[in-house]
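Q: What does the assembly look like in three dimensions?
Context provided by user:
Components: four
Sequences:
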Amino acid sequence: MNSIIRDINLAPSGKQKIDWVRKNMPLLNAIEKEFSETKPFAGLKATVSVHLEAKTAYLAQVVAAGGASVCVTGSNPLSTQDDVAAGLSDSGVPVFAWYNSTAEEYNRHIEAALDHGPNLIIDDGGDLIHMVHTSRQDLLQNLWGGNEETTTGIVRLKAMEKQGALKIPMIAVNNAMCKFLFDNRYGTGQSVWDGINRTTNLIVAGKHVVVAGYGWCGKGIAMRAKGLGAKVVVTEVDPIKAMEAVMDGFTVLPMSEAAKIGDLFVTVTGCERVIYGEHFKVMKDGAIMCNAGHFDCEVYKPELESLAVEIKEQRKNITGYKMADGRWLNLLGEGRLVNLACGDGHPAEIMDMSFAVQALSLAYLAKNHDKLEKGKVIDVPAEIDARVAQMKLAAWGTKIDKLSPEQEKYLNSWG
Amino acid sequence: MNSIIRDINLAPSGKQKIDWVRKNMPLLNAIEKEFSETKPFAGLKATVSVHLEAKTAYLAQVVAAGGASVCVTGSNPLSTQDDVAAGLSDSGVPVFAWYNSTAEEYNRHIEAALDHGPNLIIDDGGDLIHMVHTSRQDLLQNLWGGNEETTTGIVRLKAMEKQGALKIPMIAVNNAMCKFLFDNRYGTGQSVWDGINRTTNLIVAGKHVVVAGYGWCGKGIAMRAKGLGAKVVVTEVDPIKAMEAVMDGFTVLPMSEAAKIGDLFVTVTGCERVIYGEHFKVMKDGAIMCNAGHFDCEVYKPELESLAVEIKEQRKNITGYKMADGRWLNLLGEGRLVNLACGDGHPAEIMDMSFAVQALSLAYLAKNHDKLEKGKVIDVPAEIDARVAQMKLAAWGTKIDKLSPEQEKYLNSWG
Amino acid sequence: MNSIIRDINLAPSGKQKIDWVRKNMPLLNAIEKEFSETKPFAGLKATVSVHLEAKTAYLAQVVAAGGASVCVTGSNPLSTQDDVAAGLSDSGVPVFAWYNSTAEEYNRHIEAALDHGPNLIIDDGGDLIHMVHTSRQDLLQNLWGGNEETTTGIVRLKAMEKQGALKIPMIAVNNAMCKFLFDNRYGTGQSVWDGINRTTNLIVAGKHVVVAGYGWCGKGIAMRAKGLGAKVVVTEVDPIKAMEAVMDGFTVLPMSEAAKIGDLFVTVTGCERVIYGEHFKVMKDGAIMCNAGHFDCEVYKPELESLAVEIKEQRKNITGYKMADGRWLNLLGEGRLVNLACGDGHPAEIMDMSFAVQALSLAYLAKNHDKLEKGKVIDVPAEIDARVAQMKLAAWGTKIDKLSPEQEKYLNSWG
Amino acid sequence: MNSIIRDINLAPSGKQKIDWVRKNMPLLNAIEKEFSETKPFAGLKATVSVHLEAKTAYLAQVVAAGGASVCVTGSNPLSTQDDVAAGLSDSGVPVFAWYNSTAEEYNRHIEAALDHGPNLIIDDGGDLIHMVHTSRQDLLQNLWGGNEETTTGIVRLKAMEKQGALKIPMIAVNNAMCKFLFDNRYGTGQSVWDGINRTTNLIVAGKHVVVAGYGWCGKGIAMRAKGLGAKVVVTEVDPIKAMEAVMDGFTVLPMSEAAKIGDLFVTVTGCERVIYGEHFKVMKDGAIMCNAGHFDCEVYKPELESLAVEIKEQRKNITGYKMADGRWLNLLGEGRLVNLACGDGHPAEIMDMSFAVQALSLAYLAKNHDKLEKGKVIDVPAEIDARVAQMKLAAWGTKIDKLSPEQEKYLNSWG
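A: Here is the predicted structure of the complete assembly.
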């Protein structure tokens, strides 16, 4: 296979980035070493579709070290970094992706990566899974199963499972405790603000920051907004989550009210059309919107564009939309994942945990694929979660207590 | 039935306390009104064993308003407030409890409350359930089932269920989202520090506060300790919870190390012997210990007493133990639940949510008892959780968004 | 002199309280030891008027250990603890104060303490200084000078100084860095919430807490309210402080707006009539007000009383005022300092710093009184501030860096 | 004058950046409008030496709008943005600066900007003032005075003043409340973490972050580190500041101890050699260092370089130094101001306040220069502070309370 990338000359910069994250991902280091010896993927083909920046490149290399023939595509047109793509390709892993691909190019890249004929896939948001269940069902025959990285992808898989449409076993990597409790909360929490701050160069303290969605990602974003001095407003559709937001000291409002007072909006619901026409009409001049959910449909761009009398780049990754009454509304990173479109994604140590779950789950799939029920969304085995946790504590050098036999007995008694 | 209480002359003070919480428990107000009309407990007998302060008294009155013949006992020797007991008794609900009961008195009071021959019970920690499954199995015949309030009680019930020892259906009130996400976290978080601060009159800021256990209660206690300016140290036996503590900015250590640096210790593990001999030996002079777990076995008093060369009250609710080397170690509230033994328990609005779940779950039991499997720990029905959440949002006047039909459809599609 | 106290039989309880704070005030321990040897007050008389709870009692004993003939009165009718007064009196220091004194009694107690004919005074809020400059000017002749503890007292002294009314040198203890940066911020911050929480037993998280005044005390109260999960609203008259509040993540409003949304109000401005008639009229049913400023004029009680159709105690230290439209407004501790009227005042370790400044400043006055300009408000000597800081760091066992000679030189060069 | 810049073709990018900050600096907008009418600098020449990014460019344009002939140079070799330099030059303001200048080039650029023969200067750190008092004393004759932006610059000016070396009046802009309380705390606090996060892509939560110096800048950096979930360690030489750090919940250590446990170090002391040889020897493998103080002498690079057996760029703006024992130590932005060398400096709205003080102080200088004492460091007039505060509150739409005449009287009375 020949890579389809922007410019192979960018490889040195990409390799430097990959080297940096390798130095900061001790769990993957250990797994890479183990895989090099045990070769869990010997003779197998794997296709990876994950936001193509340095951490993902390293994950692909770890899977390759395990004996797989790996190829990689992106999972969002704006999250692919061309230098990383070049560096990864130069290291021997074929890549099909470039930054700012058109919808057509993006699909072509996914298809090229699937042409590899994978036995295993790593998916992020469900674009691979969608294609092999629609236009490329021919690939299902050799496909043993795969992993899904995100909450959004799992919502889609669950819908497929319910409708009997899913044809292979898929491991819900997102639902591992070592993943969603850390990646979604602390990873998203920090990286979203990294993306916003470097893009806007505006103060967060004192601003009304509206966070749409108070799931694990939203909790992380709101927590860090508070840590930066913002007045946080939360919108929710779930009463329990709404109450948690209130008790965490935040103001809870419907979006129709929040739209009027917000200075900066972050959507992270996994749903569509969270901010739309009637909201655009009441927003303050200069309001800034961005999205941290998987798809770019949360801030509803078609309506924003149709309301605009002028559209103009305000600064790198900031698009300004001028309303008929003169107000400018600003959208970061085209409404795509702000931490990836306007930044480098999650911190390396966080992805180290998530990708350790990915790598070990993929090895589990390779070994157990014939015992797994097709068409099911499968939990990450508890022992993988436990192992990753132990590895992470060891990497920190953190020691914890152990239940004594007497304590174990106490906890199992009632007399 | 005649109440067994300290002094009926304390009734006016107790009634004032009950009136105050009634004014601050709008959910129970609404349920009281409804029950007065629907009489879900008409003709039934109920026994309540919950920490007997004002909120519990009001819960008992609400159940009584629903037509039940109710009687009440405490659930911890130090958490019963004699004036509240008198006020409740004076309002027509028999009470069997007093402050600082001996172990023998405490058991006698429980038995007296069970002599009522209840059809329904509300238990807190499992003392009622224990007695009806051991010395008073005669009561099982008329006992339709009950509710359990605490994590600890549910651990015991699950052990019974596993061993086939449980003979009635028990609803795990603690596991309702409207309960554990709020009561265990924000309720415990605030009330523990209320109890500690009023008892010690010492500064929290700058101190090393050791929180043993990072479950929902521990998370709340640690969060508020941080809010008060402490340097928080967490001890855990669960790797995932330990990692959460690290990422929340806390130091995680085994107790053997934490014991050396802690100024103030709070145990909240639900386990036994969390702080014991080897820890007492290395603690700093003046160290303060307290417990927020259900039983008083977390700080291991027998060993503390045997190590002491002198034992002396230092201030109300503070017992000082002098070690042979001259260090004084201090224990608050005899190692019993510090928020109840040294305070008034959880804030009223928090118990309003928990007790709304209690009241509605008890009505559910009354109506459906013959359909419920005996010997099972049962989840609170989702519609009760949803209803309590709606009531609480309404009480705050908080409005939230609603999924549109298009959004519902989006969330159920995958194409 | 014979003490004027409520009941000498309360002495054991008071002594226990004093013993407890003594164990937690290492700076005063060291100063007591030094004074016992150096006797800086040999042959002198001192009158102390400070909120009479255990820490103040110990301060009086430390001054007595320095050779002074000391007597003590309170500085607020509700902050005197009768058991502490008895315990202190029993230890040999005459006391003139009791809890809940009438205005007339309160003044009589102050006068009794001044009849001692002091050479030195320790004042808290300015009641001593007022009396010796008005009805008891006869005492000025022997009075060498004194210390003032509070921001409020210093505002009064500065007014006197400007008008030429002040006749003795007064040291502004409050303005020492070891005092106002710690006592006013962390001391008030914690103790106000201790007082509120133990008195109301209501949740703070999720509530709108209005803090009137964003000086050091207000900053501390707001910081801890945030730490407890409140949504904090600040009112201010100073634009700079208002901007700090905004940047700290708080909402800034005029009181007329804040009154409508607040659930709990704390005034701490040092000014009068901060919350009054027009505010009472728009407050929510059940709103709670309290004060942490020196005088009880911040929540304007005369207007509250005249608007009320019914006044009734709701719980210990909570007075309910029923408005004509049926709303109940609640006032804690009669609008007097809530941390003292409803609690035990600042944590011991904080007062250890403030009172170390008091004790050393008083010794400075004793030694240098003839060199000090009469009628002036004098700063605490920098060496006292430095010494207290060093003592406190040593008590914590905290080590810090030291500038090297090269660094000193660097900081003094410009080339 | 002809600009000395890298590449005029970068002007469009620079102009876009300047346009963006202009939209977010309402105070400078108002002052620009006023100056355009009043022309306070008509006929005068001004030289500006401030970190040359977009906000500074706009400040220069505002001064030019006031009638001055302005030219601009940088104030740090790594903080100049070449596109902004081009954009500013293209707008008609001569610029002498480029990114990554050598020491010789840097000095040449300063000299070129001074060749303009300014009547007024705006200095940042003291490089202009140093040159006109050493090699270019010929310029003093026409120089009426200037403003200094930083704490560091003022330390240098105070040293000059004390030694009688200062020959012109200099306004201490840094010491305005509208500047240091906001810029140094909230500006530095956010922008330092923006710079670190975008450069490292590593997690902050759970890390030991060592902040050297707990002045206003250090307080801001520590506060935001805590907000990001770090365990903060503070080093200090001042006992009072050290105690504040303890009470704010941080660990205080000497650098020799902090060096062993730190994962990430930020120096912000204004002093030299804060981290040096003995510290480098005990640091953890992978430790990251950066500086937020004015000069690049806080992390002592000469010793770091001499200890290194290999020096290698790890990622853009990260230099790795390999120690003889194999540990890699990382330095961000060559030890220069990390928020400027690795970012875009303070948020626009913060610089809006600081630069409003700059602009109004410069107009004050222009008007009053003949009344000001030469050789003195002068405070910003209180009315400028007050005016900027009012403008900022108005820009936010924040309303505050006003003292009534009765309250004013109360505060000035003592009777």
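Follow-up: The first strand of chain B starts at residue 45 and ends at 49.
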